[in-house]
Structure of Integrin alpha-8-like:
Amino acid sequence: MSGCARLYQVLFALLSVLVGVTCFNLDIEKPSVYSGPEGSYFGYSVDFYRPNPDKNVMAVLIGAPKANTTQPGIVEGGAVYYCAWPANDTDSCRQIPFDRTNNRMVKTNGERQNLDFKSHQWFGATVRTHGGKVVACAPLYHWRTVRELGEMEPVGTCYVAIQNFSAFAEYSPCRNTNSDPEGQGFCQAGFSVDFTKDGALVLGGPGSFYWQGTEQHILNTHLSNQSAVS
Ligand SMILES: *[C@@H]1O[C@H](CO)[C@@H](O)[C@H](O)[C@H]1NC(C)=O
Ligand SMILES: *[C@@H]1O[C@H](CO)[C@@H](O)[C@H](O)[C@H]1NC(C)=O
Ligand SMILES: *[C@@H]1O[C@H](CO)[C@@H](O)[C@H](O)[C@H]1NC(C)=O
Ligand SMILES: *[C@@H]1O[C@H](CO)[C@@H](O)[C@H](O)[C@H]1NC(C)=O
């Protein structure tokens, strides 16, 4: 199915046309067509989702990395939409609340400062499902480094949802003390993402150890290999 899913990504991103023509025996006279907010890059990522293997309910998850959300104080944080499949009417998609919160703040030298920066983080740039598990990432999520004079670094972050979006866990492996370009400060975790067959999460972090030049190519496929949720 992942071959199909990739084909769909192309179809959605470039053409926004028919769902299922190639991979499913679907009524081509009534294609499922989805649309999202203007300027939200709706369709940048897409995957099928089947919450319960015993039931024949199918949905399509569609990323819109520049969508506005209900998160207070966040501009264009990005979102993933849950869309009924086949599409039913013009309003078959709704935003999944992976994260409802504002930026976290920290008090440094008596001053309140951002610990993270969720505006323009491109959440929903990548989305993948594995049974009832869903991962979606914000590769341009920045956080404040742990030094006294904190800087913003694009470490990236991902959220995993289980049990049909009733529980969420954040997973941001590059948000550590190994900051700066020569560390994992520019990692952009979640730039690519997938699950292995047995459900382990695999994240691409192309920006890690940037200044090591030739190693960058190898590190483009630098994978972290941990289950986020057991
Ligand atoms: C998000 O909201 C901001 C501020 O309200 C607005 O300027 C921007 O156009 C909105 N973006 C999208 C994609 O709707
Ligand atoms: C469309 O949605 C309505 C209400 O949500 C539902 O009753 C109906 O069965 C759906 N139709 C199809 C073809 O799924
Ligand atoms: C799963 O979550 C979606 C999105 O919130 C919701 O529309 C759907 O009804 C849920 N399905 C079940 C079986 O709870
Ligand atoms: C990936 O995870 C598996 C199972 O936990 C482990 O055996 C393997 O050594 C890990 N590979 C890397 C590169 O970390």
